[in-house]
């Protein structure tokens, strides 16, 4: 996840005015070089003259969307820091073995050009940012873009998110499936994810029994957390909880500790990534005096999920299953 966390809160609203990324089409065979493909991305319909052959992805969740669709052979490589945990045990480990790890730093125009990319798949604060790489700047270089739906700007300044997070995942699988001619694989993935999530929801707490949950990403002066358009909101809801920040019309954002104290979560989910370990984050929470009377702290109801579980990715269904088991 190059820059998308607390230090990554740098994206601002930018209109997507490119002609290479996005919308609906009935047929999109990968070997059909003569057929233009139109898909939808962040509310805009965009036409591709041909199916991309050298895709560069940014961050773990975005990269694994490509792997889950079986598109590693369509990739020029991926950009990802090496703080995303063990990758050899994930369901898409073959993709990591085949695709080239281009950089452990941030994605740049120079990197995309050097990789001879014809498409960059990234997101706002997941590689794209107004003070750095943008779809517009890539378009000027003849490189198309696809923007992660979880990160789409929603018209509220720099706020992000335009639909429920799991719907964002299903939307990206559907649109990319159309673009690359792997619609059947996309449909099977979506059906599998939906069935697994439905089974968790069947067993999950209902009504007043649903616990209030706080997602803690990072930050000590102020916590970085998830609004209703970031994956944790949907993961928490489908697992049987209620996110205490559901009212925030944004994806990843910062709040004040007083809000956490006032809303008194019964469970805290820690996002595990970066230089600060999950155990260090837990120790901070348990010893931070303003939180001493918060229910989750008093009862030590703190659970850890990986970063890749909590951003839009093919790991979201598994995260629902594991959190659901903890909340029951």
Automatic annotation (TrEMBL):
Residues 1-23 form the signal peptide. Residues 54-328 form the Fe/B12 periplasmic-binding domain. Pfam families: Peripla_BP_2. InterPro entries: ABC_Transporter_SBP, ABC_transptr_periplasmic_BD. Keywords: Signal. Belongs to the bacterial solute-binding protein 8 family. This is ABC transporter substrate-binding protein.
